[in-house]
Amino acid sequence: MQEKGTFATLPALMKKASNSRDRALRRLVQEHGSPVMAISRAALKNQVRRFRTQLPRVQPFYAIKANPHPEVLKTFVACGTGFDVASIAEMDAVLAAGAKPTQIVYANTIKPVESIRGAVERGVGLMTFDSEYELAKIAEHAPGSRVLARIKVPNIGSVVELSLKFGADPSDAMELLIKAHRLGLKPTGVSFHVGSQCTQRENYIQALELASILFRDARLKQIPLDILDIGGGFPIRHFDNEEDLFDSTSRAITQEIERLFDQNVRFMAEPGRFFAGPAATLVMRVIGKAIRENKHWYYLDDGVYGTLSGMIFDHAKYQFKVTRTGRTQLSTIAGPTCDSLDIIARGEEMPELELGDIVYVENCGAYSSASATSFNGLAPAKIVMVP
Ligand SMILES: Cc1ncc(COP(=O)(O)O)c(C=O)c1O
Predict the structure, then answer these.
(1) Is the pLDDT of residue 1 over 60?
(2) 177 with 136: CB under 8 angstroms?
(3) Pairing of the two strands 343-351 and 126-129
(4) Top-confidence residue, 156 or 288
């Protein structure tokens, strides 16, 4: 893990005049080779700061699936965030980074029994569920655990739909919480996820309304709930011309929290993309060039099997930037593997590029290196931490 003096801070640098920014990108490649992903500690910390400022009542538990790099985890441990993990391997990663078991929520509603036992061994006692089968497993292998019932909520317009696979129907949730109580578990609260990259704040508003009905019902049934986990979904910008929706989304959430819930309810969230996404810049180089269908094709040294894997798994769309200037033309960019799936973009407006030229993508720290493979023996980008 190198951290050399390439940058003042990455965010400051990316806002600089193009020639000094481009020089720094070239230096980064000279120092570390290409492809390389630079993750800025300052940007990671800034996301935590923004979250806490805009959502003062909500405790963030970073969803490490977005980017489990050990240095990213250590940075968030130092910020005092909690962690959302989906497996024992993720649990061990955050514990190794210095998190305490009490700072962890095991937020996968379907868990192997070995992992449920593993959570108990590690002292992690807060987990989500969304079916009575899962409750029975938790009651047997992690008796007395605190459980959050995950409910299905609208995911309308979110780039990644999560309610297709997870969440109890809200009308069944009360029954499940009562069942948890009868099984000797501690029904502690409710969780939901509005879908990742949620650009419609109405999804949060409706989810909070649904959760508040459950909180009232539970109180009447003598099962008072303490925690509402509002999940992830907080949107980021991928393109320069996109609106930043985080502040307006957070304002709506804060208003609804104040309106619908008692002062003693604790709120947590599981931001993944919002914490890791804006902190990373991926720098690639042109390794091949061809003219096909009367168009320039540029082959880069990273692609959809590598660090751009989010284009497949996360439905991500990225803004590709170049350091070369000049008259633009419609071009195709592709990755380095032998598969035609590895075509990155077909209608990019870019100046004519030459071999060795830099192509870079900002805001790509989430769901990118996390799902990268080394298909064809081609390693994804080296990750370097920068200030
Ligand atoms: C249970 C759970 N929590 C949190 C997240 C993180 O969501 P996001 O990256 O949209 O913040 C996910 C993403 O898939 C998830 O499945």
Answers:
(1) no
(2) no
(3) unpaired
(4) 288
231 CB less than 6 Å from ligand 1?
Answer: yes
Active-site option among 79, 198, 338, 364: 338
Residue to mutate (ligand 1; options 162, 163, 197, 274; most atoms within 8 A of CB): 162
232 lines ligand 1 (CB under 6 A): yes
Distance 1 CA to ligand 1 centre (A): 27
CB neighbour class for 231 (10 Å; exposed up to 12, middle 13-18, buried from 19) = buried
Cβ 40 vs Cβ 338: under 8 Å: no
Question: How would residue 17 be classed by pLDDT, with cut points 50, 70 and 90?
Answer: low
More confident residue, 14 or 68: 68
Pocket test for ligand 1, best of 65, 67, 151, 166 (most atoms within 8 A of CB): 65
What residue segments make up the domains of the chain, in order of their start? 10-40+278-386, 42-276
Which CATH superfamily includes the segment(s) 10-40+278-386?
Lyase, Ornithine Decarboxylase; Chain A, domain 1 (2.40.37.10)
338 is catalytic: yes
Mean pLDDT of the chain: 95
| pLDDT for 8 | 60
pLDDT band at 5, cuts 50/70/90? very low
Rounded to whole angstroms, the Cα distance separating 42 from 40 reads: 5
What global pTM score does this model have? 0.95
Mean local confidence (pLDDT), 285-291: 98
Q: What is the CA radius of gyration of the chain?
A: 22
CATH 3.20.20.10 fits 42-276, yes or no: yes
